Amino acid sequence: MQQNNSITEFILLGLTQDPRKKKMVFVIFLIFYVGTMIGNLLIIVTIKSSRTLGSPMYYFLFYLSLADSCFSTTTAPRLIVDSISAKKTISYNECMTQVFALHLFGCMEIFVLILMAIDRYVAICKPLHYPTIMRRQVCTNLIILAWIGSFIHSIAQIILALRMPFCGPNLIDHYCCDLQPLLDLACMDKYVINLLMVSNSGAICSSSFVILMISYIVILHSLRNHSAEGRKKALSTCTSHIIVVVLFFGPCIFIYTRPPTTFPMDKMVTIFYTIGTPFLNPLIYTLRNAEVKNAMKKLWHIKIASKSKR
């Protein structure tokens, strides 16, 4: 990657400079990250191994868990290592790579959530046409389009980052590289690039959130025509999706749809959607989904049975 400045590395200040709090950060986020990886990998393995979880909803949930795992890995390991490391430097190229990966997997999560909403809309509002509309090939093509869209978004973000000139200082008051904290260090007029950032990331977050909420309102409204049992099952699934949408999009909209101003709570808000949400998603989707829990139990029993035969 080409540098448009004299800075070769940045220093990430992290969440705190207090030695005691750094140890707390290490323990807390190590637990969060391990929990995130175990939870999401368990969902990935369960969906891949179970014959009962072959519907489009679980096909999309597989990719949501994959995006969550990669999204958390983009920021959490460095935060954990930096919390106990004396040297918290990150090279310019590593910083730009983190910006690219952060937006690639974050945008992928947004698109997968939209696909899950489409799947629920078709299943509930057009049940007779569901097998025809949501065929496996259609779902595969939608996932491919989601990856392409995420890649295009990330390319746009990395172009903005590479165009920022940095002439010092190189202290990033954050635990990761992103356009907002980098913009604070840029030696340039910030208005235009912030406008481009808001029109890209901000527009994607805001418009996607509005689309998702409208779609779920329509879905919930249509449930009045279903049986009591059908309403209960659909309501449980949709409630899980709505919780995930609110938890993810609320912080994203706060970060990416505002003027170039830094607030003290920015780091905590960023933690919530980069580390907190990927940790909570497996809990939300497993605790509120009987099919996933049953499939996990069956998979666990099969593993135990196969070991006992040996």
UniProtKB/TrEMBL annotation:
<dbReference type="InterPro" id="IPR017452">
    <property type="entry name" value="GPCR_Rhodpsn_7TM"/>
</dbReference>
<keyword id="KW-0807">Transducer</keyword>
<dbReference type="InterPro" id="IPR050427">
    <property type="entry name" value="Olfactory_Receptors"/>
</dbReference>
<dbReference type="GO" id="GO:0005886">
    <property type="term" value="C:plasma membrane"/>
</dbReference>
<keyword id="KW-0675">Receptor</keyword>
<keyword id="KW-0552">Olfaction</keyword>
<keyword id="KW-0716">Sensory transduction</keyword>
<feature type="transmembrane region" description="Helical">
    <location>
        <begin position="268"/>
        <end position="287"/>
    </location>
</feature>
<dbReference type="Pfam" id="PF13853">
    <property type="entry name" value="7tm_4"/>
</dbReference>
<keyword id="KW-0297">G-protein coupled receptor</keyword>
<feature type="transmembrane region" description="Helical">
    <location>
        <begin position="100"/>
        <end position="118"/>
    </location>
</feature>
<dbReference type="InterPro" id="IPR000276">
    <property type="entry name" value="GPCR_Rhodpsn"/>
</dbReference>
<feature type="transmembrane region" description="Helical">
    <location>
        <begin position="235"/>
        <end position="256"/>
    </location>
</feature>
<dbReference type="InterPro" id="IPR000725">
    <property type="entry name" value="Olfact_rcpt"/>
</dbReference>
<feature type="transmembrane region" description="Helical">
    <location>
        <begin position="24"/>
        <end position="45"/>
    </location>
</feature>
<feature type="transmembrane region" description="Helical">
    <location>
        <begin position="201"/>
        <end position="223"/>
    </location>
</feature>
<protein>
    <recommendedName>
        <fullName>Olfactory receptor</fullName>
    </recommendedName>
</protein>
<feature type="domain" description="G-protein coupled receptors family 1 profile">
    <location>
        <begin position="39"/>
        <end position="285"/>
    </location>
</feature>
<comment type="function">
    <text>Putative odorant or sperm cell receptor.</text>
</comment>
<keyword id="KW-0472">Membrane</keyword>
<feature type="transmembrane region" description="Helical">
    <location>
        <begin position="138"/>
        <end position="162"/>
    </location>
</feature>
<feature type="transmembrane region" description="Helical">
    <location>
        <begin position="57"/>
        <end position="80"/>
    </location>
</feature>
<keyword id="KW-1003">Cell membrane</keyword>
<keyword id="KW-1133">Transmembrane helix</keyword>
<dbReference type="GO" id="GO:0004984">
    <property type="term" value="F:olfactory receptor activity"/>
</dbReference>
<keyword id="KW-0812">Transmembrane</keyword>
<dbReference type="GO" id="GO:0004930">
    <property type="term" value="F:G protein-coupled receptor activity"/>
</dbReference>
<comment type="similarity">
    <text>Belongs to the G-protein coupled receptor 1 family.</text>
</comment>
